[in-house]
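Structure, all two chains, one model.
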Amino acid sequence: MADEMLRLEGVRKTFGGAEVLHGIDLTVRRGEVVAILGPSGSGKTTLLRCANFLERADAGVLELGGERYDLARATKREMAAVRRRTAFVFQNYNLFRNRTVLGNVTEGLVVARKMPKAQAEDIARRCLARVGMADRADAYPAQLSGGQQQRVAIARAMATDPEIIYFDEPTSALDPELTVEVLGSMRQLAEDGMTMLVVTHEMSFAKNVADRVVFMEDGAVVASAPAHEFFDHPANDRVRTFLNTIADR
Amino acid sequence: MSDRVAEILLDSFSKILIPGLTATIPLALISFAIALVIAIAVALVQYAKVPVLTQIARFYIWIVRGTPLLVQLYVVFYGLPDFGIVLDPFPTAIIVFSINTGAYSAETIRGALESVPAGQLEAGYCVGMSYMQIMRRILLPQALRAAFPPLSNELIALVKDTSLAANITVLEMLMATQQIVSRTYEALPLYLEVAAIYLLFSTVLTWLQGIGEKRLASFGMERG
């Protein structure tokens, strides 16, 4: 399909003899926001990490913008190529602790993409402005709140103009108020047409921002549906049980 | 204190201090600089788990940490001539101190590298950087910052350990003191005097360490 941005096929991963991903298939279209929901330990984060080679899958294929990569056997060069075309936002931000806010955003441009510093800083300042962090450009990560750090991480992800951004539970480490500001930045990114694959526990985000919801359990995709349909007409009992549990909280 | 002792102390002060400035300090600083290069290389090899080189690194650390520094000095200075390798005392001391401090500092730096969260490396990969770029620009600077206090310790220890070089005829502070003692027989005041000069050197280094730590703290990173 022409508008396919990302396709994962048959992703398998075993940790210490236990298979945590049983051959996952997943597709994300260009400009689509896909939320991956599911209970803890269902393999959501592992899937995301395999898609960016942070974990080495035992089997599976990644197709990114029409180019195919073997997840189990990709070379260093191929892994670097995939990573330059994607971006990753971590649960605990992982900002470079020895770089300022500005330096965090320019690092990937200047070092990995050999962009002139002035041009990189221009882009960085624009991205920081979009997440409301332009005035803290000279601060170090340790001087920022969790929410601020995560917004900088989002700016860092945007700056490299990726074809898709992976989000790994981006708000799980945050207080409710701080969650709101991060989700705001993500919503804006979605409205700008960014392709996003988001592992999350935020039902409101999945419901209101995501185009499609993928539900995972025990290393398998149990349901995949447009967001409104997923919530309004649960595909099966397992999804219904999950939604009820969430609703009871 | 008798006038005679006071006079000896006064007279000997510059005779001890000058070898301190021309031998003890250069010996310590040059050795420490070389030791740091060795230590970073040995730490990186182990951190990256490079096969064979890691085993060589562990062997090196095992030997150096498991044998006395004085014995190492003797082996190189009195032992190597049997193989036709004859070195002057000062270069011998530099080589042995570098290798010795390099082994200890390698463990310090390796520990500091391993204390940098794995997420820093992952974040570097995800913005497209190579392992070497991440190591040089992200991991190593953070590790060296964490290693700064223990490395300062090692430098101060090295300044005092240079006194062992007197045993292989390097004319440093302790040797200079011993020569004066053998002439004047005033052991206690003179050894206390040289001790005070070592203390002075260590105090200056401790003070410099404080300044260095303040500088590094201005990166706004949490201490620890």
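Residues 3-217 of chain B form a domain with the MetI-like fold fold (CATH 1.10.3720.10).
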